[in-house]
């Protein structure tokens, strides 16, 4: 990025501060503001990606937000949680033995629908004040980009499950999915999927709350490939901002 005139402290772009703020250098760190730049196509519930049509607001962490709004307050702390259990269910591979691959191509037409099951063990208390929460997916190293932007959905998992036995034909019941993020073909950057409402519900200790499901319909020739962290790359993680 070309240098801009003026005092460095006043001219540093918010997006640059964001990149430094989100580096996963610790499991528990002070949370600086999540800032962003550029709107995107607000398709459902303010979901966006890239620059474009958020009007007077900004596309921050996958959502159109007012220019004055931050998805995490300045005094929040950031908690990063790896999944306690993880399963990848592929529609066109329904008979396969349960396993987690090195990478998953979400939205690839050749594989049909993909359902990613995630269960986390919160380290924050039941009464924690959750400002925001995101499932973070890292691009698979050296994977080709998707041909188009892909909309991903999230749902609450409604019954117990285990990765050892979960398959396409034996998957747990889910709540009604809703659009939560748009995966862009380029650049290959981490994808943050807003799951704030689901994580806030954890404090209610609902008996039918058994994790988070991410769903992607097969609509792209290539799909968006994300690492599961089995032998290379960084796997999915939950990024929570707690006040």
Automatic annotation (TrEMBL):
<protein>
    <recommendedName>
        <fullName>DNRLRE domain-containing protein</fullName>
    </recommendedName>
</protein>
